[in-house]
Structure formats: C-alpha cells, structure tokens
C-alpha cells in the first residue's frame, strides 16, 4: 500500500485553521468526532491551468463554498469557517504549493479533538490541493452496473449535503460495482435512479437528455448545474424527472458527471451497451462545450473562473 510520502501528487503544504504548514504535519486527533463519527463536511473543487495566460483558475469556487455553508449549517457546527476565509485559504494553498497544472482542491470542516457524536465544536478546517489531470475515462467512457445497495434517504442521511458520513453508502456501492470492473448506479428505495457514488447521471432518450431531479437522492451537483446550463445554450432539451430502472436500457447514450471526473461517458449498463457502446454525439458535444467553459474559452462564463495566482504571474 503506497503511503502519501510516495505519491507524486503529494503537495508540500496544507492549510489547517488558516495556517500554512508542511503537509506531513497536517494531522487530526484520533478522538475527533470528525474522524470517529464522520462529522466532517467537505468540498472538492478543480483548478484549471491555462498556459496561454500563465494562470490557474478555480472553477465555480463561490458555488462550492455556498454548498459547504449549507452542509455545515445542517450538521450544526460552531463557528464554522466563513466562505471568505475558505476562499482565501484555497488561494493560499495553491500559491504555497506553486500549483501550475490542472489540480484538485479539497476543503474540509470537522469537529476536532475530544467529543461525542453530537459535539458541535471545536471546529477545525483544512484545505489541500494536488495535481490532478483529466481522467482517461473522459475519452474512453466506462461500463456501469446497478448495485444492490440503495441510496440513503433525505430523511435519514441526506445526500443533498456533502458530509463524510454519506460516503459509506457511496463506498458500499462503489465496492460492489468494482467487483464487476464497473462503476455504480445507485437506486432509491422506490427503485428509481439516483446517482453514482461521486457524481450525477444524465441519459439520452430520443435526442433529449433526462436526469434525476434534486429530490431524487442526489447531491446538488455543480457540474450537473453547469451541464444543464450548457445544454440549454446549445439547444439540447433536458428533462429533470424521476427515472425508472428500465429507462436505463432505453437510453442511447449517457454520462456520469462531477468535479473530479468532469464527464465520463457511459458505455454500457449491466452489460447492455448504450447505443453502439461508445460515447455518443450529444455526450461528445457537451464534453467539448464543458472543456471550452472550464478553460475560459466561453466568454459568457468567465465569472465562474477565479484566478488564483498573483496578477504578476497572470501577465503574458
Ligand atoms: N454526487 C456525489 C455523491 C458526489 O460526491 C459528487 C462529487 N462532489 C457529485 C454528485 C458531483 O458534484 P459536483 O459536480 O458538485 O462535484
């Protein structure tokens, strides 16, 4: 098992409670409720490097921080880190690590040190970044299977918030799918489609896209929202509605989306190919539009890109 010191993407610095410290010193107490009871909220963001601008852009930072604020509010954390402070820490960690390539950023806020499962403080925060190139599956697509684990319910462990405790459900689903060398599709208790362990689903039927609603056991995904916006721009109709299990097999193409994987085409579901089993034309068109958007080639959405490096580095 590789430890973090052997990883090529290991950063030099992390930020804990606003302080920049060597990555190897960024530790959590074994008594922290954030660890034992998963009383931790987090966000995963991407930074996109633009060589032509000599600049790194954080994608939809404000929206991620807004979602983190809601997650913290729901699980009741004392003095949670403000969005302004977390934004500053994101910029600080990228600069401290001299990040000059596509990367992933993780913010966390958790109940630290000694406490029980309803402790609301003391709250600590962390921010890290690491190099992360686009995943190969963006091009090749992946096979998916419907797993036997059901999505946790909104009135049990709400998928709408990005709290670590929810990732047990994702993990069980992901492990089951991995045994078939595939990625997971999770159904709700009523048998309708929710999402995957770490991303949302879109399917194409009769030239239109369909995707589960935000009340179908999903995280309110920022990538999903971006793709709804882009689909409207390019004139592809999207229906947000409940999706029955058998509709998965009526789809002629589809994709899985989230910050980390961006857009992964779905090649097959439960061994049945979607269309000809290769990424479809609507998927490819939206992938191109997504790439244009995150890399600042779509003027309309430049406000979603926050430059992270000092203006000096941004010149030329
Ligand atoms: N659903 C789950 C369960 C996730 O973990 C993620 C990744 N954050 C997503 C959906 C996609 O969300 P986003 O597009 O905001 O990254």
Could you characterize the architecture of this molecule?
The chain has 316 residues and is of the alpha+beta class. It is built from 8 helices and 15 strands. The protein has helices at residues 33-36, 61-75, 83-96, 137-140, 167-178, 222-234, 281-294, 311-314, and strands at residues 13-16, 19-22, 40-50, 55-59, 103-111, 123-131, 142-150, 183-187, 200-205, 208-211, 238-240, 253-258, 262-269, 272-273, 305-307. Strands 7, 8, 9, 10, 11, 12, 13 and 14 form an 8-stranded mixed beta sheet that branches. A hairpin with a 4-residue loop joins strand 3 (40-50) and strand 4 (55-59). It is globular, with a radius of gyration of 20 Å. 44% of the residues are buried. The mean pLDDT is 96.
Helical residue percent? 25-40%
Radius of gyration: 20 Å
- The CATH class designation of the largest domain is Alpha Beta
User: How many individual domains?
Assistant: 2
Instruction: Tell me what the CATH architecture of the largest domain is.
Output: Alpha-Beta Barrel
- Tell me the span between the first and last alpha carbons: 43 Å
Query: Strand pairing plus helix content: what structural class?
Result: alpha+beta
Task: Tell me which ligands are bound.
Answer: 4'-deoxy-4'-aminopyridoxal-5'-phosphate
- In the CATH hierarchy, the third-tier topology of the largest domain is known as D-amino Acid Aminotransferase, Chain A, domain 2
Number of helices: 8
Main sheet characteristics: 8 strands, mixed
Oligomerization state: single chain
Contiguous low-pLDDT stretches (5 residues minimum) are: none
- Principal-axes geometry comes out as globular
Beta percentage is: 25-35%
CATH-assigned homologous superfamily of the largest domain = D-amino Acid Aminotransferase, subunit A, domain 2
**Which whole number gives the mean pLDDT?**
96
Strand elements, count: 15
* H/E element sequence: EEHEEHHEEHEHEEEHEEEEHEH
